[in-house]
Specification:
The complex is a heterodimer of chains A (151) and B (236).
Chain A (H helix, E strand, L loop, with lengths): L5 E4 L6 E7 L23 E6 L8 E5 L3 E2 L4 E9 L2 E10 L2 H11 L4 E5 L3 E2 L4 E3 L5 H5 L2 H10 L1
Antiparallel strand pairs in A: 1-2, 3-7, 4-6, 5-6, 6-7
Chain B lengths: L2 E7 L3 H18 L7 H7 L9 H16 L15 H18 L5 E5 L2 E5 L1 E7 L7 E8 L2 E6 L19 E8 L2 H13 L4 H6 L5 E6 L3 E5 H6 L6 E2 L1
Antiparallel strand pairs in B: 1-2, 2-3, 3-6, 4-5, 6-7, 7-8, 8-9
Helix pairs in contact in B: 1-4, 4-5
The chains are: A alpha+beta (151), B alpha+beta (236).
Chain lengths: 151, 236
């Protein structure tokens, strides 16, 4: 295969005023495949129960509260009321794959990393920047890269 | 008004011509600088929305969803005249990438007015906002779209739609992710938010960002820190 072929075109259209075309002769070597994902087997649920005999008869109702997610566990609380007495409290810690996923997600809060602005030179292929006009393109980094490609 | 476009791809000239033809069609349809474009006629009221082409309607629907998603900070009607170019530029380039891939390109890079979309592995330099010949960072990009919004090239051309004033304190915002039109709109919105932008970018799903502040700090999302090249940028 011959070396790169480059063609420069000036297009009258408003969108494209300078067109640079390059055929890349090089083929990048293949990177090694990523390792297979780790499968975490589900752990059994943990229940903690405390209960007491009701002191007076009454209708029995059970209610389960919302699950609470912390960085370490996902917990749901189920209560049983006899009449107006709390006679049973069950704490269910979900440790299965679903629970673990929720716990991991709770740890992954959005954060920002801070650093000082530096100015440097680097071997780059292409540039991103605030929109530039055709006039400022001529002096731009991208223009220098495109010129170098044309050889 | 011209936007410089460059295409670099391992395919023949015919495929690259088709990509440029696509970009010319987009310009004819969407340019706010041409009175006869669909967008100009829609804005002037001489073309009814339902008579617009399916592409235009799809783009405007997408822009409306982005307006809601950015709490009004990306708004195609912010200047008082219908102008979706903050999304269209990226969308057009992303479609050009698809055309080149269909033609068999495996490694390609398209740049248009500072927006970039690549296939394969590319070292993407982030323009330094104050020093024209230098970069502020390098993104080690693979199959990625990168857009940047800032005030340093054309002056204060971006205003916060909610205040009507240019944002203070921010030199530029660079957003990277799978789709360039979306990255374009997010960068525009985040820049318009000024000092509230970085926190908003930290909540984006699937898109990473780096914000360069006027006081010399750079705030990057966690994912952007991981996208940045491990090769040290040599200080000049």
């Amino acid at each position: 295969m011959t070396g790169p072929t480059l063609a420069r075109r000036a297009l009258p259209a408003a969108l494209a005023t300078v067109a640079i075309v390059a055929l890349l002769a090089n083929v990048k070597p293949k990177l090694p495949a990523p390792p297979p994902p780790r499968v975490i087997p589900p752990a059994p649920e943990v229940r903690r129960v405390s209960s007491k005999r009701p002191t007076a008869p009454g209708p029995r109702r059970t209610a389960t509260g919302q699950t609470v997610t912390t960085p370490f566990s996902v917990v749901a609380v189920r209560v049983t009321l006899t009449g107006r007495e709390l006679t049973r409290v069950e704490t269910v810690a979900l440790s299965g794959a679903d629970g673990r996923t929720k716990a991991i997600n709770a740890r992954a809060e959005p954060i920002l990393r801070e650093e000082a602005l530096r100015a440097g030179s680097a071997d780059i292929d292409i540039v991103t920047g605030a929109t530039y006009t055709s006039e400022s393109y001529i002096d731009s980094l991208q223009s220098a890269i495109d010129k170098a490609r044309r050889g | 008004m011209g936007i410089p476009v460059g295409i670099s791809a391992d395919v023949g000239a015919a495929a690259i011509d088709r990509a440029f033809d696509w970009l010319r069609r987009v310009d004819a349809t969407f340019s706010t600088w041409r009175n006869d474009s669909e967008i100009s006629r829609l804005g002037a009221g001489t073309l009814a929305p339902l008579d617009a082409s399916p592409e235009v309607r799809a783009v405007l629907r997408r822009c409306e969803r982005l307006r809601r998603q950015t709490a009004g900070r990306f708004d195609v009607r912010a200047t008082g005249r219908l102008d979706p170019s903050g999304f269209v530029k990226g969308w057009a380039v992303q479609c050009a990438v698809a055309l080149l891939e269909e033609a068999g390109a495996r490694r390609l890079g398209v740049h248009a007015g500072g927006d970039v979309a690549v296939r394969g592995r590319w070292r993407v330099g982030v323009q330094h906002p104050l020093e024209r010949d230098h970069v502020a960072a390098v993104i080690d990009a693979r199959d990625l779209a990168v857009a940047t919004s800032g005030a340093y090239e054309r002056g204060a051309h971006i205003v916060d739609p909610l205040s009507g004033c240019p944002p203070e304190g921010v030199l530029s915002v660079t957003v990277a992710g799978p789709d360039l039109g979306t990255a374009d709109a997010y960068a525009t919105a985040a820049f318009a938010m000024g000092l509230d932008g970085p926190e908003w970018t930290a909540g984006l799903r699937g898109y990473e960002a780096m914000t360069i502040l006027a006081d010399g700090r750079v705030l990057s999302t966690d994912g952007m820190a991981r996208l940045r090249s491990t090769v040290t940028v040599a200080d000049h």
